[in-house]
Amino acid sequence: MQNADAFDLIVQGGRCVTPSGIETLDVGIREGRIAALGSLATATTKERIDAKDLHVLPGIIDSQVHFREPGLEHKEDLGTGTASAALGGVTAIFEMPNTVPSTTSPEDLSDKVRRGREKAWVDFAFFAGAADEALPHLETMEKQEGCSGVKIFMGSSTGSLLVDDHDVLEQVLMRGTRRVAVHCEDEARLRERRPMVEKEGATAHMHPSWRDPRTAYLATERLLKTARKCGRRVHVLHVTTAEEMELLADHRDIATVEVTPQHLSLVAPDCYDRLGTYAQMNPPIREESHRKALWKALNDGIVDVIGSDHAPHTRTEKDRPYPDSPSGMPGVQTLLPLMLDHVNAGRLSLIRLVDLLCHGPARIYGVANKGRLTVGYDADLTIVDLNAFNAISHDQMASRCAWTPFHGRTVSGWPLSTIIRGNIVMKDGNLLGDPLGEPVRFAESFKSNPNLET
After folding, report:
1. Across the chain, what does the average pLDDT equal?
2. How far apart are CA 358 and CA 25, in angstroms?
3. What is the CA radius of gyration of the chain?
4. Which listed residue, of 284, 352, 380, 406, carries a Cα 20 to 30 Å from 260's Cα?
């Protein structure tokens, strides 16, 4: 019989962020689960980590990444992307469907899960892509192993994953029960305004003018009306405008909200002055008034989740003249360091950050046994030093694109260890062992009950 006091791993003496608050506790791990929280100084264990003067967080969940596999592996693949995640303290990722081919069939999704099991350093799930050809398959895909939900692109996207037809949007929202994550930009307005950047001398400074706040607002407004008509829960990704936040505050029963570290940390025109097309992403980095509105919404409780929207491109691609340069920037490895720096700057509390990076994604998508530091949950832990000062640099990045828009930025707060189901995957900036990622599990009720509260 196994000794009830014996553990596989004890994380000792850390400042643990639990549902009850921040407490100095030992975390006892057995068979991949959190088995005990308390004083375990005399307990026997195979391995012990001294976390004195450190903070122990639930494993960070990055619920929006683009890892480009299959079809675009020259930018990123599941191995390099998840390595970058683990080095950044992230224990689970939800990956988007705009690969080649797009993830629009049960076979496509199963193929990604197979690839994840072979290559992923962290646990993973994949979104089903909404498109005409996907309509017959969405309800089946929602119930498959490793499916995090459905993704809609209302603005231009890779391949066939553009849903700019209202009838198709309504059909997608009428099929299935899982959370639908939506990129909200109005495609008709984007096409109408495209000539303003297709002229000699156009630069990335024009990106937020082309993809203006009205472009985002129109799509979000249409999404909310359709979601309410269909009775479907939606999650509005990377919100960037003050006007959208005011609108979303009135629809909390049907819609949840994501912001990104980029939109909280960068501001126009400064970022375009410094970075040019490397600051180009969709929706764009906007001026200070919108950034202030995002922070206000975050602190008012309107924002539910922070996701990185990790979307890497090679330097060769980003160096193309605007607007032929692709939109997107890497971010999974810098997600947590940037947000810890904001905690140290007093912009939000550590408890609020854990809600946004751990509890929020788990709650919204119905993740089973992740997102909380509590007995019985998966032993996914992120150990951080809030007092560590580090300069973010290109050469730290494990992403295949090998660059970051935050190169040279010194931050306060840094992940020291990433533990996934009781396995130490990263310690002191080094990956340990072999990739061990498994599909994230989801509560069965979230696959069958469209009326669950968020």
Report:
1. 95
2. 19
3. 21
4. 380
Measured between alpha carbons, how far is 90 from 62 in angstroms, rounded to an integer?
A: 7
* pLDDT score of 448: 55
d(CA 152, CA 65): 14
Contact 392, 411 (CB under 8 A): yes
* Ramachandran region, residue 426 (left: φ > 0; alpha: ψ -120 to 50; beta: rest): beta
Question: Residue 126 in 3-state DSSP?
Answer: strand
Smallest CA-to-CA distance from 134 within 153, 117, 115, 155 is with 153
> What's the pTM?
0.96
Question: Using an 8 Å Cβ cutoff, are 61 and 362 in contact?
Answer: yes
**Which residue numbers are catalytic?**
309
DSSP state letters, 240-276: --HHHHHHHTT-TTTEEEEE-HHHHH--BTHHHHHHG
Query: CA separation (Å) from 409 to 205, 262, 265, 334?
Result: 21, 13, 11, 11
**Nearest Cα to Cα of residue 272 among 192, 190, 179, 210:** 210
For 302-355, write each residue's pLDDT tens digit: 999 999 999 999 999 999 999 999 999 999 999 999 999 999 999 999 999 999
Please name the residue ranges forming H helices in 308-404. 315-318, 335-344, 350-354, 360-365
pLDDT digits (tens, 9 = 90+) for 78-125: 999 999 999 999 999 999 999 999 999 999 999 999 999 999 999 999
Amino acid letter, 215 = T
HSE on the CB side for 270, CA within 13 Å?
10
Looking up tokens 């920037």 gives 329
343's tokens = 């905690």
Q: E strand or H helix at 381, and its extent? A: strand 381-391
Identify the residue whose tokens are 């990722």: 93
- The answer to whether 65 and 96 are in contact (CB under 8 A) is yes
Tell me how far apart the alpha carbons of residues 404 and 282 are, in angstroms, rounded to a whole number.
Answer: 17
Place of tokens 């049907």: 254
Backbone angles phi, psi at 258, to 5 degrees: -120, 145
For residue 413 the two structure tokens come to 């707060």
